[in-house]
Amino acid sequence: MSRQVDDTQLVEALRAGDRQAYEELVERYTPALLRVASLFTPTRAVAEEVVQDTWVGVLRGIEGFEGRSSLKTWLFRILTNTAKTRGARERRTLPFSALAGVEVDAAEPVVDADRFDPQGGDWSQPPRQWPEERLLAAETRDVIRAAIDGLPPAQRVVVSLRDVEGWSSEEVRDALGLTEINQRVLLHRGRAKVRTALEAYLA
Predict the structure, then answer these.
(1) pLDDT score recorded for residue 4
(2) pTM of the model
(3) I want to staple 100 with a disulfide (CB 3.0 to 4.6 A). Which of 112, 139, 154, 168 is the partner?
(4) How many domains are there within the chain?
């Protein structure tokens, strides 16, 4: 059964008040929702509240779901809108859209200029290739997680959704309200910083 057919049947069941369908949706997405909410909020407790509010929003809004996006995208858009509002209030910081704009416009090189040949622009210190067993080691994964956690907020969210949750660029753009260029720049900069931390650890 395709995901689209599966989603269509699930939406119809939810609209009909099918409790089992709702429980299936909760079981399928709550772990990922909690991980994403944690990217926007200061504590796990707040993230859990955001997820609860998201499920309330799903029940209230399912009648208005038009299917122009996937059920997953719609669900996470509710979550990110709720989380961004709550996270900004808790931290008293700029909203995500402003943070993303700052990070995209910041005058910072993606890769250290010293790694390129000033004459020809080619790599003078090209990225290294590491044995797969080292990349899969638990300590290496901890380094990667710590590097992602240390990224600026917008980069952390985009890298986490693309590389940890496995979202497509379209899903990230739709859920976060980003342009394709902004999403691509944030992802590229975030990945470069994670790679730099990984190189330092594995050197």
Answers:
(1) 47
(2) 0.68
(3) 154
(4) 2
